[in-house]
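Sequence, please.
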């Protein structure tokens, strides 16, 4: 029976990771939820109960604070603040509690997906003519972050003496894909992981000269492969070179813009030094204070400060930063201390997992891997693997307490509440998408019902109010009905109340009250409109729509 369950864990883990990859690109709660559900099913292969350990304190502490902050403290709720930490926890729980065979099968599944992504990236820089590989990801940096979490542990296995043809081929393919991505953050992450591998290998007396030479040879072969592959005479076609390789000038300009983003994040944190601004609210700081980032001009967008530690401090406050640092330092510290005392057969796997974690810890200095679902899932899984290899002694609860019926009831209630909280964004997102499809198809009554359902299901998400406002404003423009104008104004007002940092709903309020004042029972006067436009300018002074409203306000008597 155990073997059957273990054999099922690999495809489930593959599906979960693939969905997390899709969720890293498209950012839909439904993708995150389905990935989490697949991980939950994979976790049914568990052979041991949960226990408190330094690793679990670090993982659960960071995840719990991010989720609670999103629900109760942040002025700008986002379901990402719930699902991102959930994937971290699920990856960790699966790897620490499942059988060794299940974890091994899951690792093979992750490697298979990594090979697919690596091959995809090489096709992009070869036949498709892209300047930098990224596969499905939005940026080459994210692509490199995921690949490094697999590449460095694979190189550790090579350094430990394994010479399987599939392992050498996988490591070479991953290395070639990392070089094809040409991400400076990816290179830093790789160097950090290899540095950790050397330190832990020396401390645990693991790698000989031959093993290290083999690992470095695989890396060199990957580099040569990437260069040779790119230089082949691929046929050109329209759309080739979608993003050219970075020149020295563009690299320097990019480095300067990173410094500007860091300064902006630091300034935003100083405004709310205790509570933080909220998960994934950096983009609002950029919209408000673009003058601090002149290299981004008036239209370039980013949701990341390109330093996860500083952005976490800004968004989740000192407690969030402490949680992230614990998540990064606990594995490194325990691995460094305990590897010399481990049985010889467990030292190499422990060093491989710790070095993989080090890649992401280093990458977070210059990019944003701790905000990427696929990276979080893999990071959590590697934490679980490392805990198993280090045999960290659990800090178990007292037997009477752990067996208490009251505690079991509390756990059941907490699980039900968590399920409702997590399902709410998915249900609302599904209803809103269906409503917008009905809107596009011209079925107004059905669109109204589904969009209203989305608003009721998840009223804290500003997007669903904005969708409803867009629908009712279009109905007002088409038919000139008072009820449609009223509902549009209400929807926009509810959206702005849900997220006072987002300017879209505020602009909707201004538009409806300015254009359809005659259809509203209590239209805003000129003074109120000027006040709203002033608020919009404070939130996004360089926004084109805000400027248009300011210009149109001159025509309001």
């Amino acid at each position: 029976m155990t073997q059957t369950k273990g054999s099922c864990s690999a495809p489930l883990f593959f599906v979960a990771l693939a969905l997390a990859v899709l969720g890293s690109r498209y950012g839909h709660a439904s993708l995150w939820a389905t990935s989490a559900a697949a991980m939950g099913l994979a976790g049914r292969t568990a052979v041991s109960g949960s226990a408190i350990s330094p690793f679990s304190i670090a993982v659960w502490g960071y995840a719990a604070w991010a989720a609670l902050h999103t629900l109760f403290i942040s002025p700008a709720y986002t379901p990402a603040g719930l699902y991102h930490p959930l994937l971290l926890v699920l990856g960790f729980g699966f790897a620490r509690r499942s059988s060794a065979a299940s974890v091994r099968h899951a690792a093979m599944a992750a490697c298979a997906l990594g090979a697919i992504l690596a091959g995809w990236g090489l096709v992009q820089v070869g036949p498709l003519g892209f300047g930098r590989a990224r596969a499905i990801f939005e940026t080459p940096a994210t692509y490199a972050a995921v690949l490094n979490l697999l590449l460095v542990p694979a190189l550790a296995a090579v350094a430990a003496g394994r010479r399987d043809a599939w392992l050498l081929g996988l490591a070479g393919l991953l290395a070639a894909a990392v070089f094809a991505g040409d991400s400076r953050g990816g290179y830093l992450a790789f160097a950090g992981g290899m540095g950790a591998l050397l330190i832990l290998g020396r401390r645990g007396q693991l790698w000989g000269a031959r093993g290290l030479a083999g690992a470095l040879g695989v890396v060199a072969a990957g580099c040569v492969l990437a260069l040779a592959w790119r230089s082949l005479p691929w046929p050109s076609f329209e759309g080739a070179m979608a993003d050219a390789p970075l020149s020295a000038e563009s690299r320097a300009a990019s480095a300067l813009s990173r410094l500007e983003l860091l300064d902006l994040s630091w300034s935003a944190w100083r405004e709310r030094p205790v509570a933080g601004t909220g998960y994934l609210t950096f983009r609002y700081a950029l919209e408000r204070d673009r003058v601090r980032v002149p290299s981004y001009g008036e239209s370039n967008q980013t949701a990341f400060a390109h330093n996860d530690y500083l952005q976490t401090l800004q968004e989740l406050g000192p407690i969030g930063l402490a949680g992230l640092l614990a998540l990064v330092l606990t594995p490194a510290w325990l691995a460094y201390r305990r590897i010399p005392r481990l049985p010889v057969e467990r030292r190499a796997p422990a060093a491989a997992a710790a070095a993989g974690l080090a890649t992401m810890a280093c990458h977070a200095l210059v990019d944003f891997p701790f905000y990427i679902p696929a990276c979080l899932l893999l990071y959590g899984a590697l934490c679980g693997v490392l805990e198993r290899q280090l045999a960290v002694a659990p800090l178990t609860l007292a037997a009477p307490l752990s067996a208490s019926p009251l505690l079991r009831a509390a756990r059941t209630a907490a699980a039900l509440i968590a399920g409702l909280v997590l399902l709410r964004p998915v249900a609302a997102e599904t209803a809103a998408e269906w409503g917008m499809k009905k809107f596009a198809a011209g079925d107004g009554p059905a669109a109204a019902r589904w969009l209203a359902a989305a608003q009721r299901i998840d009223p804290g998400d500003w997007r669903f109010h904005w969708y409803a406002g867009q629908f009712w404003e279009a109905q007002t423009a088409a038919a000139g009905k008072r009820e449609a104008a009223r509902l549009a104004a209400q929807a926009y007002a509810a959206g702005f109340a849900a997220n006072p940092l987002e300017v879209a709903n505020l602009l909707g309020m201004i538009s409806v009250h300015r254009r359809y004042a005659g259809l509203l029972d209590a239209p805003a006067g000129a003074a109120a409109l000027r006040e709203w436009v002033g608020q919009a300018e404070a939130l996004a002074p360089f926004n084109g729509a805000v400027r248009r409203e300011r210009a149109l306000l001159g025509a309001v008597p």
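The radius of gyration is 26 Å.
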